[in-house]
Design goal:
The protein has helices at residues 25-33, 59-74; strands at 2-9, 14-20, 51-52, 77-87, 93-96, 102-109, 117-121, 129-133, 139-144, 148-151, 160-169. By secondary structure, it is mainly beta.
């Protein structure tokens, strides 16, 4: 089941938060963890080193993608790509943006000290404004591709697990 949760204002744009309840996050976590050593890159100068391959044919991940596609379709979006994120203790994601029109992240597992996703907005010549979100497992967050963001360190002993991607508007 897909349910719109809330709209959070960033500036002139917004972050959409959706609750995805028709999947088993424990099973998705197991499926994502099967690729823990299958990183998209070995080059530690890029954010791709933080990302893992996703088996979209794994049963529960396939079910999740069907739910996410329902959300994307409701917004006239089509998914472009996706990857897994498995953050061990003290791991984080550096500040970055995305190449396509809409970035998204689905949170599979968020232990208590998992850390926030932080959006950074430059407003004029002032210091950038930071907006912190502490996502929960089962939440899908979608936001404009140009918004710089990072993920704070996971301070928990358990993995923080998410699936992220890019989408574009259908022509």
């Amino acid at each position: 089941m897909v349910e719109f949760s809330r709209l959070e204002v960033l500036s002139n744009d917004a972050v959409e938060v959706w609750n995805i309840t028709g999947v088993c996050n424990r099973r998705i976590a197991e499926e994502v963890l099967n690729n823990i050593d299958n990183r998209l890159s070995a080059d530690d100068t890029t954010t791709l080193v933080e990302d893992t391959h996703i088996d979209i044919e794994a049963p529960e991940t396939k079910k999740l993608m069907k739910e996410l596609t329902e959300v994307f379709n409701s917004r006239n979006l089509v998914n472009v790509d996706l990857w897994g994120q498995i953050h061990r203790k003290y791991e984080s994601t550096q500040l970055h943006d995305h190449p396509h029109e809409v970035a998204w992240v689905y949170y599979v597992k968020t232990p208590p000290k998992a850390g926030a996703i932080v959006f950074q907005l430059q407003q004029g010549h002032h210091r950038p404004r930071q907006i912190h979100f502490n996502p929960k497992a089962g939440e899908l967050i979608m936001f404009p591709n140009w918004v710089l963001h990072q993920v704070n360190k996971n301070l928990d002993n358990e993995y923080r697990i998410s699936i992220a991607g890019n989408a574009k508007y259908e022509s």
